[in-house]
Amino acid sequence: MKKALFLFFALLACNSFAQTNHETVYMIKDTIVTIEKVEELAKENKIKSIHNGVSEETFKQLNAKHGYQLIAKEFIFMIELYNEGEIHDSSISEIKKSSASTDSEFKVKKGDKIIDFEIQMTNGKTIQSKELKGKVILVSFWATWCASCIRELYEIPSKIIDEFENEDFIFLPISIDEKPEKVKPKLAQLKSKGINFESGIDSKKEIWDKYASGSIPKNLVINREGFITYLSQGNGDNSILSIQSEIRKALQE
């Protein structure tokens, strides 16, 4: 039973997020189930996999079936169960949490001075990191296809942008491995839902490759002197609140 629970929570940890006003939807095939039902299935060791996000086509089909109850495709978890004939002994549940490899995916560490960079923004402006000295910066690496990134961005306006609106603070999201024509429509979609910001475009991953590898989202808090004070990966419970706290500390220095 413990291993069954570990399977569920390890998978969910890779795709979880701090609670927001946007309702998370759990589905088995095309049927909505409660989190309590998911936990029950996990205890019975019946969960084969949990996938976060669906395609645009599937999202439209699900909305049509359920009367447009679904907020966004990034808030949907699709759960696959074992078939009756499948054998799934305890070895299946030996899953390592992604957070264990967080440090190894960063190429910088807390206390490092940032590596200078220049980036083109979606509004056409160019930002040079050296021009930002004296400001506290949150750099967030993301991509339009990354469901965890999008869920994190839903929290940014209220918990980060609005919170530090009158401070010496800059939010600098950087989309990796994508061209402007891919990023701009996603930003427009987010703007229609009240999530309004410009993004840097790192289409060749030149900045990303200096700082990290592996999965996204990844975040760096940089102090006024240009030193990294905090690193985080993923969008787990309370991750935005932790980032918020680290920004506040940096502003008070």
Automatic annotation (TrEMBL):
Hey, what's the signal peptide range on this chain? 1-18
Give the matching Pfam families: AhpC-TSA
Q: Which InterPro entries match?
A: AhpC/TSA, Thioredoxin-like_sf, Thioredoxin_domain, Thioredoxin_ResA/DsbE_sf
Q: Per UniProt, what is one GO molecular function of this protein?
A: antioxidant activity
Task: Could you list this entry's UniProt keywords, alphabetically sorted.
Answer: Signal
- Residues of the Thioredoxin domain: 108-253
- Xref: Gene3D superfamilies: Glutaredoxin (3.40.30.10)
Task: Keyword check for Signal, yes or no.
Answer: yes
UniProt keyword Ligase, yes or no: no
**Protein name listed in UniProt:** Peroxiredoxin
Q: Please name the source species.
A: Aureibacter tunicatorum
